[in-house]
């Protein structure tokens, strides 16, 4: 079985994230919401049955925990509650990250990735981790995306982050770098590489057969004819022309202040942005509680809620599970789209 292909009806794997953060409670809340709305897909959590049971009791979340021995058990166990793989467990310490908790988070992530790569799970939904906490147990990755790329045998540059909500999808061309470094990192080759991955991802994972890409400008007013910078004319416009020559429906450069109006959003399927905040601010402003972080360019399906560990509110019952519910639903829809495309 090739990586990324799964058995028919295979469930999704959900990872715990840092147990000191809001991961456990948003998993519980999301599952309870999806079950109540009869939208819960076949899924299981990679470890933590007692941890999740204790969290549900402490927070008053109506989400029975059903320990299972293997992913195939999830289909039947989900009728009684949230299926959770037994064999990996621990205690939570809301708001207080520990080395023990970091090991549990890493173990859950490794287990979930292994099950997806083996085809026993149809996709991976990852709860938030703390990179600082994981560094204490030998973690040496910028994030979960890069870890998963390496697990899939792909270079990090092939793992493209897309932020997706009901009315907007954005892709940052550069991610966790200083704003001052962005102009030097942007190149025609980088735009082409990521745009091709986004187009293929939209086709295979979302059923968008003819994707429309809006390419953002870097400078105010798209450079104003060179008065505010020449990256648009020198780099971005030639990249767009090359994409169009390949048959990709790309347009721009579109000034950042005009790219996210309601009328503009109706004209494209994804916006390729030049830097982190240019992509994330509009997504979070419009759809914070439903925003999903989707990884494109890998053989596996991976989604995650578009928020962090939120240690400051962990264990207080304040975390909104909407983004986790959206991440689970989106991963399920992507699995269905892939099955249809590959049929």
Task: Describe the fold and architecture.
- The protein has 343 residues and is of the alpha/beta class.
- The chain folds into two domains: 1-157 and 301-343, Isopropylmalate Dehydrogenase, CATH 3.40.718.10; 160-297, Isopropylmalate Dehydrogenase.
- It has twelve helices and twelve strands.
- The chain has helices at 23-36, 49-59, 74-77, 99-117, 131-135, 144-151, 182-185, 188-206, 231-245, 262-265, 276-287, 322-342, and strands spanning 12-15, 43-45, 65-68, 82-85, 123-126, 160-164, 169-172, 212-216, 249-254, 270-273, 292-296, 302-305.
- Helix 1 (23-36) crosses helix 12 (322-342), helix 8 crosses helix 9 (231-245) and helix 8 (188-206) crosses helix 12.
- The longest helix is centred in the last third of the chain and has 21 residues, at 322-342.
- The model has no long low-confidence stretch (mean pLDDT 93).
Secondary structure elements and pairings:
Elements: E1 12-15, H1 23-36, E2 43-45, H2 49-59, E3 65-68, H3 74-77, E4 82-85, H4 99-117, E5 123-126, H5 131-135, H6 144-151, E6 160-164, E7 169-172, H7 182-185, H8 188-206, E8 212-216, H9 231-245, E9 249-254, H10 262-265, E10 270-273, H11 276-287, E11 292-296, E12 302-305, H12 322-342
Parallel strand pairs: 1-2, 1-5, 3-4, 5-12, 7-10, 8-9, 8-10
Antiparallel strand pairs: 6-7, 6-11, 11-12
Core attributes:
343 residues; alpha/beta; Isopropylmalate Dehydrogenase; 2 domains; ten-stranded mixed sheet; two-stranded parallel sheet; 12 helices; 40% helix; globular
